[in-house]
Design goal:
The chain has about 290 residues and is an alpha/beta fold. Helix content is about 45%, strand content about 25%. The protein has 3 domains: about 60 residues, Winged helix-like DNA-binding domain superfamily/Winged helix DNA-binding domain (Arc Repressor Mutant, subunit A, Orthogonal Bundle); about 110 residues, Periplasmic binding protein-like II (D-Maltodextrin-Binding Protein, domain 2, 3-Layer(aba) Sandwich); about 100 residues, D-Maltodextrin-Binding Protein, domain 2, CATH 3.40.190. The protein is built from 10 helices and 12 strands. The protein is elongated and about 70 Å long.
Length: about 290
């Protein structure tokens, strides 16, 4: 079994399409097809099924994916270690992020990680929501995840620890009726227009409850959090965002106000039970950054 076979296998698994996998790997499609067939012959089991929508991984492919990623990561770390001289830890941990954690605490973690361990290059992988981020760690496509949600994340081969608690804030346009208050009761939001976060997020769950209870109206749903403060600043509606995005909101000319009573959500670090040295370094730095923020 060669490293190239594992790289092609992971590429096909990620894209579930031979053409797109070959393009991402910068090789020809026949080369990828031959490599996958050779690997299936060596393992004596099929890894992918052809379906009308493309390729579908078999149970065997699902089982070996985490090991394939781990082996490729360790091979990369081996090469980096040989070239790094005095660098203590090397590697490329893949970290699944939601749109809120991709700003903070991720930015602070990467900054300190580079200072402590210059041989570690973190790869951030954006997920649609916390559940998808945790699933990425569970299936082995990511080494760690940073997610904000009420319940402790769970899954096979993963563990979670609370890093910090972020507050969900109301984002308001300057000069609005809510601009002068430090904290606002949700009952005061009756009938207000809102810019919504995507479904299956803590912010969306809070808003959906207000829509049901107070007749609030969703006028737009925005997947990228960066756009939300800009829309609020234009007066299109209010929004809920985590307190970690305070700087982003201020740059857009909007304001953040607390809710009364406060609404708080834990931020969890999720890792595999068998983390690589680089993933361990990421977690240690994340703990330190979180402790400094408390």
């Amino acid at each position: 079994m060669e490293r190239r076979q594992l790289e092609y296998f992971v590429g096909v698994f990620e894209h579930l399409n031979l053409t797109r996998a070959a393009e991402s790997l910068h090789v020809s499609q026949p080369a990828v097809s031959r490599s996958i067939r050779a690997l299936e012959t060596e393992l004596d089991t099929p890894l992918f099924r052809r379906t009308p929508g493309g390729l579908s991984p078999t149970e065997a492919a699902e089982r070996i994916l985490p090991a394939a990623r781990r082996i490729l990561g360790e091979l990369t770390a081996l090469v980096d270690a040989a070239r790094s001289g005095s660098v203590d830890v090397v590697g490329e941990p893949r970290v699944a992020l939601t749109t809120s954690t991709s700003h903070e605490p991720m930015t602070s973690i990467v900054a300190e990680l580079l200072e402590r361990h210059p041989g570690v290059r973190t790869i951030g992988v954006l997920s649609e929501n916390a559940a998808e981020a945790v699933a990425a760690v569970t299936r082995g496509s990511c080494d760690a995840a940073l997610v904000g949600q009420e319940r402790r994340p769970s899954g096979s081969q993963v563990r979670a620890e609370a890093l910090l608690v972020e507050e969900i804030m109301l984002v308001v346009p300057p000069g609005s009726t809510f601009d002068s208050a430090e904290r606002i009761s949700t009952t005061e939001l009756r009938g207000q227009r809102f810019i919504a976060a995507p479904a299956h997020t803590e912010m969306r769950a809070l808003l959906d409850q207000l829509v049901e209870d107070l007749g609030c109206r969703i006028v737009a749903e925005v997947a990228h959090r960066d756009a939300v403060p800009l829309m609020v600043g234009r007066g299109l509606g209010l929004a809920f965002l985590p307190s970690t995005l305070r700087e982003l909101v201020a740059r857009a000319g909007a304001r953040m106000r607390g809710l009364d009573p406060p609404v708080e959500v834990p931020v969890w670090a999720v890792t595999r039970t068998d983390p690589t040295p680089a993933a361990k370094a990421f977690l240690e730095v994340a703990r330190h950054v979180a402790g400094a923020r408390l």
